[in-house]
Amino acid sequence: MPRNTSNRTPGRVLLGVAAVATSTHLLAPGFTGPQGVSSRIGRTALGARRFFIGGNWKANGSPDSVKQLVEDLNAGKLEVDATKDVEVVCAPPFVYLSQVKDSLRKDYEVAAQNMWDKAPGAWTGETPAAMLNEIGVNWVILGHSERRENCGETSEVVAAKTKFAIENGLKTMPCIGEKLEERESGKTFDVLDEQMKPIAAALSGDDWDSVVLAYEPVWAIGTGKVATPDQAEEVHAYLRKWLADNVSQKVSDSVRILYGGSVNDANSEELGQKPNIDGFLVGGASLKGDSFTTIVNSAKAAMSSA
Ligand code: PGA
After folding, report:
1. What is the 30 CA–ligand 1 centroid distance (Å)?
2. Nearest C-alpha to atom 6 of ligand 1 is from which residue?
3. How many whole angstroms separate alpha carbon 302 and alpha carbon 294?
4. Which phi and psi (to 5°) does residue 33 adopt?
5. Is this prediction's pTM over 0.90?
6. CATH assignment of 45-119+126-304?
7. Active-site annotation holds for 216
8. Where are the chain's structural domains?
9. Quick check: is 109 catalytic?
10. Per-residue pLDDT tens digits for 76-118
11. How far apart are CA 155 and CA 163, in angstroms?
12. Among 81, 127, 132, 289, which residue's beta carbon has the most beta carbons within 10 A?
């Protein structure tokens, strides 16, 4: 495997975080920086870190606007093969899941934005995993920062939901990421460690085949303040090393790590060329068909940089 892990240059990469703060850097003690971590492996091969684009529609849309968005997505001209080169998954609000599932182009899949980790029953207002399965929804986003913040989902809850989802046949996008004050006080990696630990403890080896990890710095979500490619790559490389150290080398090599936070059609191509960025979880720009199509097409540049 073309992993370039030998002859590492121990060193510290001090990345400015100008968009957020100028006086902090990220590196955790002992972390040598992204240059020492895995290069991308076989991105062009089906199943092996295949580029991935998720669209998180959040709580947006009306029957008409959802219909229009689906039409725009269906008309989008792809320069990549969404059955092979890139995996595309759109996550509409629950009430539109069936509509979108039935009308969206078949080379795109559909995800829920949350899920209840119990069997169907007396759970007023909740949507158990089994119900998603039964309508052909195979993916679920879990632990988005908006749910952690507004609905009190802890990392333990997110880990339990991730395990339950996988056991019930769903593929998952657990989300992690630091807040602005955590980054500014140099705690980014500590925060990510704490968010990752319960997930790693809950999952066993094969479970990771059903995980696409989304790194979404909270300060970049919906703010227009995208992480620079180097900032994002630094964290992605850290997470990949964390997986190697705390789960396994196999999982570290194979799990896709998405970046999310103000990704748009103007910045996706550059971000996607970083070796440890395997795709995106897109919020605002996923509501515009043409922008989302351009973001999907950024997989082309990502593949050629592999
Ligand atoms: P954004 O949201 O692209 O609007 O910043 C990303 C997300 O919350 O998943």
Report:
1. 31
2. 283
3. 13
4. 100, 165
5. no
6. 3.20.20.70
7. yes
8. 45-119+126-304
9. no
10. 999 999 999 999 999 999 999 999 999 999 999 999 999 999 9
11. 12
12. 132
